[in-house]
UniProtKB/TrEMBL annotation:
PANTHER family: FRUCTOKINASE, TRANSCRIPTIONAL REPRESSOR MPRA. Its cofactor is Zn(2+). This is Phosphohexomutase. GO terms for molecular function: mannose-6-phosphate isomerase activity; zinc ion binding.
Amino acid sequence: MQNLYPLKFKTRYYDKIWGGQKLKTVLNKDFGDLPNCGESWELSGVEGNISEVSNGFLAGNNLEELIEVYMGDLVGDKVFDRFSVEFPLLIKFIDANDDLSVQVHPDDKLSKERHGAYGKTEMWYVLQADKGAKLNCGFNQPISKETYLQKVENKEIMDVLNFVEVQPGDVFFMPAGRVHAIGKGIVVAEIQQTSDVTYRIYDYDRVDANGKGRELHTEWAVDAIDFSYHENYKTEYKAEKNARAEVVKCDYFNTGLIEFDQTIEKDIYGLDSFVIYICVEGEYEISTPTHTETVKLGETILVPASVHQYKLKPISPNVKVLEVHL
């Protein structure tokens, strides 16, 4: 069996009512003539949307097929024992040309009871933001379930939501249960559990061409929401040149930011997990003893767990990557 190597995947593009053109203009992606491209799925194990390899001798095989064959060599033994052939993370880029609906995701327990699926904990890394652009993360005051339901009923929910003006490089961690919405004029990289379970709370009374509004999930959402209040919802981290800055560490993923202008040598022996690199600035080369790939802004690459040693070499003067593993 030939050695595994860093894997690239075909991107899947999705037209959304709130999408735009920034995945093309900011990230240089080619989504053809989609008028409102809202999402690009870079790496997915979601049923019906499983990513397909685009480079090397494994091109044309999908992620689930590879895990069936390579098991722990691809994802790590502990990851394979926990998730079997289901890849546990979904990596996306999102272009909010208009406000996304206010929503919440259930945790694993509630989602498995209701949908037979995993819940959704996620994080956002802001890549681009128009001046004054804001997103919603949590509540702006302590609130009870009863008050919340009254606000929803009276269409006053926006009054109690916490909005934050954002800049490139900002990070927001969204554990399952936290109410959230990406605001107009923002592009983010999203790292999340493999789940497509979303409860929509409010959609600004928008209607389609037939005058019909999108479905809301008020009763389902109220059981999923974490009503606790926090003074600061933004994730603070300290970037350091040519070193990994810890950004988010939770039960579902561990994300760091590496900003580099010189070659970084990596040795992941003992990690027992795949590693994902999401390029959020610049261009670089990833090389193993047998394989080299160029990775540009907006591209994602998966390093199999059995590829223990490799190098990240900058091509542009400065490079930033999000490094993700379990």
